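Budget justification aside, the reviewers requested a transparent look at the raw inputs and outputs of the sequence design task funded under Objective 1. We therefore reproduce one unedited record. The lines immediately below are the structure tokens for a 179-residue chain.
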């Protein structure tokens, strides 16, 4: 065993220095760091109608919204500084807000008792639009989730680079900087 170990040490190739980090690979890793939040909420819509005199109709709609928080991979940057690759990870942002139209069923609507109890398509669209705006504003205020998504991307990139060094028996001089 000792002879095998010494022989391997004498015949082992020196570790190469990796000069270029594949930005496309890093962008794909950023996609993996996406956080998805599910919101179940109730949106309120007021509508006016005429029935002998102007009246308001109050409408509450239960709905489901999916919010994706992550890194816009197109904003990821890699530069070189003193033979070291610097990876700049941008702040996480809201990538997508999706209101599930299937969550709008007959049971989702609650209308105050009035003569007009039908929900129009316009009222449904207004409710969905308001729900998306409210939840997007709420998600943008989730600074902890945004920071977590950025840190998660940095950790995944770091783990990938460490694994790449092991697989290629090379040294990658890098630094990860959060913006």
């Amino acid at each position: 065993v000792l002879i095998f170990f010494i022989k391997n040490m004498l015949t082992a190739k020196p570790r190469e220095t990796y000069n270029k980090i594949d930005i496309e690979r890093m962008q794909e890793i950023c996609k993996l760091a996406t956080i998805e939040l599910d919101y179940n909420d109730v949106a309120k819509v007021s509508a006016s109608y005429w029935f002998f005199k102007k009246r308001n109709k109050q409408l509450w709609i239960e709905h489901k919204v999916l919010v994706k928080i992550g890194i816009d991979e197109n904003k990821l940057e890699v530069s070189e500084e003193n033979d070291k690759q610097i990876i700049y990870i941008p702040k996480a942002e809201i990538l997508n807000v999706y209101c599930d139209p299937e969550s709008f069923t007959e049971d989702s609507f609650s209308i105050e008792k009035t003569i007009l109890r039908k929900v129009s398509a316009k009222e449904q669209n207004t409710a969905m639009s308001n729900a998306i705006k409210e939840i997007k504003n709420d998600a943008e205020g989730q600074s902890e989730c945004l920071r977590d998504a950025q840190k998660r991307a940095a950790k995944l990139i770091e783990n990938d680079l460490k694994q790449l060094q092991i697989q290629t028996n090379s040294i990658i001089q890098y630094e990860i900087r959060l913006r």
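The first strand starts at residue 16 and ends at 18. Residues 31 and 73 are 7 Å apart (CA to CA). Computational costs for records of this kind are itemized in the attached budget.
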